[in-house]
Amino acid sequence: SLILKIAAIAIGIYEILFIFNFMFSLYDLFSKIGIKIPFFRLDFQDKQGQAFVLGMILIVSFLLYPMFKKRKHLDKIPIYDWIILGLGVLSMGYMFFRYPVYMIYYEVNNWDIIFGIIAILVVLEATRRSLGWILPAIVFLFLLYGIQDTGFRWSRIVQYLYLDQGIFGIPFFVMTIYVFSFVFFGAFLLRIGISDYVTEFMISLFGSRSGGPAKAAVVSSGLMGTVSGSSVANVLTTGTFTIPLMKRAGYPAETAGAVEPVASTGGQLMPPIMGAAAFIMAQFLNIPYNRIIIAAILPAVIYYAGVYLFIDLETKRLGLKGLSKDHFTPVSYFIRKLYILLPILIITIALVWGIAPHIAAVSSLGIAIWVAWISRDEIPGNEQFYVVIVLITLFFMFGGMGFAKIAALILLILGLSMIAMGFAGKWVKFNEKLYISLLFIFFVALTKYVG
Known about the structure:
The protein has 20 helices and no strands. By secondary structure, the chain is mainly α. The longest helix is centred in the C-terminal third of the chain and has 30 residues, at 289-318. Helix 5 packs antiparallel against helix 6 (134-149) and helix 17 (357-374) packs antiparallel against helix 20. The chain has helices at 2-19, 22-32, 46-64, 79-105, 110-131, 134-149, 154-163, 170-191, 194-206, 212-225, 231-248, 253-265, 276-285, 289-318, 331-336, 342-353, 357-374, 383-398, 404-424, 432-450. It folds into three domains: 44-168, no CATH class; 193-338, no CATH class; 341-450, no CATH class.
């Protein structure tokens, strides 16, 4: 389990430092104050980074998924699994160090072919363990076809699969660059309770109406689909609330069990964060992701309108009524907490504006962290006031105005002074939300001023 955690943390560190450009940001920040740290200028080519990420994924795959289904425990990993794992990591390590030289001369040697064959076989085995025989069998048949009928030498096929666009093609590029960013962003939103907020809000809004619990399931699944392209995750987060309520409202168990998966499946169509296929589509067609978002709005609306209409007709057929309002939290509470949806709004605006998807995800994550803190009821302070202040601040600094840097400098000075006074005077505990918001404004202003 320790090795699994190290591999997962290594992937996260790589993504944060290199994919999100934090290394360059740190170098730029220190350079502006006269400190040059060469380590922060370290950079890798895309294929090198993908080889590193795939190496860590292979570690996780061979430790979690046994060769035979009989093995269940992580502490009883057989020696052959360690050997295969080692060969896989070794082939990825060779790719990492060999690729820059290969790009200069574009020639392959015997070691390239040997490690390429190892990499292909290990990736196929990892796929078999995690997904079953069907996909590796299809790949193997196409490999045989490529060797026998296309006229290419098998060494050329290995070269293409290992060093060019095979294993490290567009789908894996999209996974390392975009999918990880949005999975991380969506997972964080789930951790701070945005799924519970959305589901309970929709239940409170629709629950007392005819067919309310089922309609709440449709709307909440659609809203959760904006931040999660995973249908399974959508079902797990919203279904735990809505399915029992649907059964309590009188829906048959099979209907309640069908409504939630159907509604959650549409989450892959719901912009701005859709399924991985949307990002692959943007890469293959070489068009901005915001055009995919705009094109997906109408199909998503039609899909959920159709599901909602079915629920309405089924409710009338069954003659069902809504539940008593006593079962739900008042709608006014959720309206007061409406700012919790700010991260979704910010990432939607950023993506439609044309900002790179992974940069938009990381930027919205900062908003989500701030929202997570000020939304806590046990912390004193009027959060609506601070939401307005922060939004006005962001507007002044990022609204394209000429005095953005001046505003950022003023906010830096004011924010730092008030934070220092607050901590020195021990005022933080009396209005923690104020100082959380001040810290957030301070870091945003610092980013704007030095950038």
